Amino acid sequence: MFGIRLVDSAQVGTRVLVANGSGVLAGGDDEIAALHRGADDPGRAGAVLLLPRPLRTPEKFVIVGVGAADEAGWRAAGAAAVRAVPASEPLHVVLPADVPPTAVRGLAEGLWLAGYRFSGAVDGPRSVEVTIQTDTFDGYAESLEAARVTAAATWLARDLTNMPPSVKNPAWFADQIVTEAATRPGLEVTVREPDRLKAEGFGGLLAVGGGSASPPRLLEMAWRPEGATRHVVLVGKGITFDTGGISIKPREGMKLMKKDMGGAAAIVAATLGAADLGLPVRITALAPLAENAVSGSAYRPGDVITQWDGSTTETTNSDAEGRLVLADVLAYAVAELNPDVVIDLATLTGANAVALGKRTAALYSHDDSLAAELEAAGRAAGEQMWRLPLAADYTEYLHSDIADRHSSPTLGAGSVVAALFLSEFLGDRVDHWAHLDMSAPAWSDAHHADLTKGATGWGVRTLLRYLTTNHPTQT
Ligand code: BES
Ligand code: MN
Ligand code: ZN
Fold it and tell me: For ligand 1, atom 16, which residue shows the shortest CA distance?
């Protein structure tokens, strides 16, 4: 479907040359070097210089900048290169001698991530075919494989998130993952339907999903490699469409709410990717899937619901639905799955974008080393996050006169308070938990660097880095 071939001699097609931040160009003749020298800031990461050469071979050179020539610089260059050339033209990248494998990884990820287009289907037809001309093949295969798995998982998360909600209901989402998992040995998937959710007490998920003609599901996918000593539980919010429910959203606030399952998409795609890479860490991915709809059977503002752990929540705003479905699943994970680490990803609050803008997730954790590991993983992978406080004194905002807590206080600090709400369900694992409110970066309004317009697949890259880096085989 998409590929990169390493070759040792020039091919036909648009030739892509790279320049570093000091303007040093790899490949090309004196004429190209002279043109390049005259350009404005020529080696900046992601800079593009197009040099058409009518009637000559090759007909076109593209020079892309790698800046500091670190992985991020190479990723930016890859993204710039794939944007500069029409998809129909073969792309031939000339690699400078002796670049490290991380450069190849960055380049490949940039090419593939920015080359994504939504075809209207999950895994529809499209391709990003590239040849890379290099003299050294050593160590590149592994980098390319890591890049390929990362990009493919990100594409999957983007496909799922871009899919219109007329198609994407909870059962459809679960079916897609059952199909994906079936192609990978060692993955086990369980899909709970409403009868079982009721019997097991998933009251938050049933309340939120109760207004929809498409009933809720709980997707559980387990990756249990032999010899794994650590167990990471990943939880993702999977609201396939969020109308707000009876506390209905205004038009502008509702129109993109098909993305409200971006957290679920990211955690399942990352788990599938971890299986592809054969990572030696046990992973359980849990995605509560529901449509928050408006109907006579929808839960009401003012209802008191009973969560999985038996505690009660007063729900005065049906638009605060994400925390209700996550609460059930976090409590279930802690009580039943004995996790070492719990990480949840959720498009939980509009307040994420108010605090941090469009490209940065809010990170919450009581665990400084887990927070640092996630921050480092995000930095390496090219996804931004910023840690915000789980300010204990705001817990009083959650007070309810008639239930154990209140789901939707209106006292401000929306993203923080939502995180505090979730923290109540972590029991003895609360110090081994991280929450990422990724409402804002789950979507991009425009093509930008390695992001394409629409769903971004935010979190897949960070999670795969985290799972790869922090869980080496232990004996
Ligand atoms: N899915 C939304 C949050 C959201 C908003 C995600 C914008 C992406 C972009 C969530 O369910 C929601 O509606 N949150 C409310 C919470 C409030 C009612 C306490 C919000 O942020 O306004
Ligand atoms: Mn909502
Ligand atoms: Zn929502």
Answer: 320
Average predicted confidence (pLDDT) for the chain: 94
Q: Which domain holds residue 21?
A: 3-151
Among the ranges 40-44, 62-66, 328-332, which has the highest mean pLDDT value? 328-332
Q: Phi and psi for 131 in degrees, rounded to 5?
A: -110, 145
pLDDT of 353-389, one tens digit each?
999 999 999 999 999 999 999 999 999 999 999 999 9
* 218, amino acid identity: L
Residues near ligand 1 (Cβ within 6 A): 242, 260, 317, 319-322, 347-351, 408, 414, 439
In a domain, 189, yes or no: yes
User: What pLDDT, on a 0 to 100 scale, did the predictor assign at position 28?
Assistant: 77
Identify the CATH number of the domain in which residue 86 sits: 3.40.220.10
Handedness of CA 375, 81, 84, 154 (dihedral sign): negative
> Is 0.90 topped by the overall pTM?
yes
Catalytic annotation present for 358 = no
Q: What is the CATH number of the domain that holds 243?
A: 3.40.630.10
Q: Are residues 305 and 214 in the same domain?
A: yes
Gap from CA of 458 to ligand 1 centroid (Å): 17
Q: Could you tell me the pLDDT band of residue 96, with boundaries at 50, 70 and 90?
A: confident
Among candidate residues 102, 123, 151, the one where a domain is terminated? 151
Residues less than 5 Å from ion ligand 2, measured at CB: 242, 319, 321
User: Cα(first)–Cα(last) distance of the chain, in Å?
Assistant: 38
Distance CA 326, CA 332 (A): 10
- From 151, 186, 201, give the residue that closes a domain: 151
- 130 shares its domain with 190: no
129 shares a domain with 259: no
Residue nearest atom 19 in ligand 1 by C-alpha distance: 408
Of 323, 405, 429, 465, the active-site residue reads 323
Same domain, 145 and 175: no
Per-residue model confidence (pLDDT) at position 276 = 98
Nearest ligand 1 atom, CA 347: 6
Average pLDDT on 239-254 reads 98
**56 is annotated as an active-site residue:** no
* Cα 360 to middle of ligand 3, angstroms: 18
Q: C-alpha distances in angstroms, 67 versus 82, 94, 130, 317?
A: 17, 16, 22, 48
Q: How far is the CA of 455 from the centre of ligand 2 (A)?
A: 18
